[in-house]
Specification:
By secondary structure, the protein is α/β, with parallel strands linked by helices. The protein folds into three domains: 10-61, Urease, subunit C, domain 1, CATH 2.30.40.10; 64-149, Translation Initiation Factor IF3 (2-Layer Sandwich), CATH 3.30.110; 163-279, no CATH class. The protein has eight helices and eleven strands. The strands form three sheets. Strands 1, 2, 3, 4 and 5 form a five-stranded mixed β-sheet that branches. The radius of gyration is 27 Å and the shape is elongated. The termini are far apart.
Length: 288
């Protein structure tokens, strides 16, 4: 006996269907859905368990939200009309730190409900620095397709006012990558370590140093060399080597110096903090 095909679970009839295919076709007709998948678009004589008459309505794929923070949903109205850094430092970061797993779950559920009701079916969301599992668990039954990431926040850096403008100027003059200089924050580094660091890293144009905290690269050049390699450490150095080997122009400058953290313990096992720690270990011990 030849098995009979199952009836579709849902048919949306009489819609103006905005397909968003390569030709951007707009079709008058029906969408047939079986086992959670669209099986046909156009006029259909099929019968279904459920039929929605969408006459006079548009039907289109769900919207995709590529930048959202579900954890901030409950903060709405608490941090309006502030400059970005003030908004982050005085309101958003303290409130994110105060989140509990329960409040994170509530924020994710509220946001997912609002997104789905407005036609958004896929999100890329960057959460806070703790308890991201609560967001995963809250979203699982919601029916929202989500790519969820835990926020990884390192020590603050302070950039000069001309930081972006100067990089654009250098790019307009032909730079494909820009290696800015950095200075460890004197407030959180041992003075002896800072003096030794300054001896080894004088501030000048055309310096030989590569700092992840002050590194810009043109998107087309980045893609042309394959982007950052999947390495445990020093991926920025390898990227610069690849750019230079392919003939891209790499400019080193002290005109956009960044003040960065002088701490000696951080997540990156061979990063800037580890380098400062190694410099400290090389200094002669101070005796009383």
């Amino acid at each position: 006996m030849v098995p009979q095909p199952q009836s579709p679970a849902l048919i949306v009839r009489n819609a103006t269907i905005v397909t968003m295919n390569d030709a951007f076709d707009v079709v008058e007709g029906d969408v047939v859905i079986r086992d959670g998948r669209i099986v046909s678009i156009g006029r259909s004589e099929d019968h279904a368990d459920r039929v929605i008459d969408a006459g006079g309505s548009y039907l289109l794929p769900g919207f995709i939200q590529t930048h959202i923070h579900l954890c901030q949903t409950l903060f709405r109205g608490y941090a309006d009309d502030l400059a970005l850094l003030d908004w982050l430092k005085t309101r958003v970061w303290p409130m994110e730190a105060a989140h509990t797993p329960r409040s994170l779950a509530a924020a994710a559920q509220q946001a997912a409900s609002e997104l789905l009701r407005s036609g958004t079916t896929t999100v890329l969301t960057m959460e806070t620095v703790h308890d991201t599992d609560a967001v995963f668990e809250a979203l699982e039954p919601m029916g929202l397709r989500a790519v969820v990431g835990k926020c990884m926040m390192d020590a603050d850096s302070a950039v000069p006012e001309n930081w972006l403008v100067r990089q654009v100027e250098l790019a307009d003059n032909g730079a494909d990558a820009i290696l800015g200089s950095v200075e460890p924050d004197p407030d959180d580094v041992d003075p002896a370590v800072l003096r030794r660091w300054l001896e080894l890293h004088p501030f000048r144009e055309n310096h030989q140093h590569i700092y992840g905290a002050n590194f810009g690269v043109r998107g087309s050049a980045y893609l042309a060399v394959g982007g950052f390699p999947m390495l445990r450490a020093h991926e920025d150095r390898v990227l610069v080597e690849r750019l230079r080997s392919r003939g891209f122009q790499v400019v080193a400058t002290d005109s956009i110096r960044v003040l960065t953290s002088g701490r000696t313990h951080a997540r990156a096992p061979e990063g800037f903090a580890a380098y400062l720690r190694a410099l400290g270990a090389e200094l002669p011990a101070v005796t009383g």
